[in-house]
Amino acid sequence: MKKFLFTLAVALLFSATAFCQTKVIAHRGYWDTTGSYENTISSIQNAGNLGIFGSELDVYITTDDVLVVHHDAAVQGHKIDESSYEKDLKDIILPNGEKLPTLESYLREGKKFPHLKVVVELKNHTRWVDQDRCVLAVVDLVRKLHMQNQVDYISFNMNMCKGLIQLEPSADVYYLNGETSPADLKTLGFAGLDYEQGVMAKHPEWIKEAHDLGLKVNVWTVNESEKIQWFIEQGVDFITTNNPVEAKKLVEKKR
Known about the structure:
alpha/beta; TIM Barrel; 8-stranded parallel beta barrel; two-stranded antiparallel sheet; 11 helices; 18% strand
């Protein structure tokens, strides 16, 4: 009986350790490789083929209600949330030769990799009404594609986060801005915190606090090997990185 209980305890410990295994998210996709570019279709293909946990992207909504994947507020002289996709953006070619992608084309590509979590960052928009339009449009699109279980949401904008939580209570929504405690995020209905590496290095106690509250912890954008290793040792749930190959290697070594 004692032997059985010991074996069970070891199994449970192993299970808990595996559950807490840090996972890798490619920042703007896995783009730092030949022929790709950040936030392109090839970048999410590369992330899916690499076999990591997730791929992050950035999204804005245009004046004609098209969701566009791009990090900066403007592309080739066009401010995205003040531009028409049809008139201004649809023919834009990015540095690697790909077209500026819509969120729908991006998600459809991600759906081909069902193991890959697609992390959608909703960017700040100039007008509050456009923030709300973006939230509604993104949620509607994810539902249309039946990808609710594959998509997580992040944003610096608390208003947009609250809208996501209200529209999709079962979705995992994470806050990026870095000033809100785990306890307050729990009260607001977040799945966890997704803070910049300097914030988390300053507040390592938030990792345990979050886990004690049942929240998850992501840290971004961690590219150097020694820093990736440090956050793995701190037990964060996710590391968002421009160096997913190295992060994957270090996570696998930890196992």
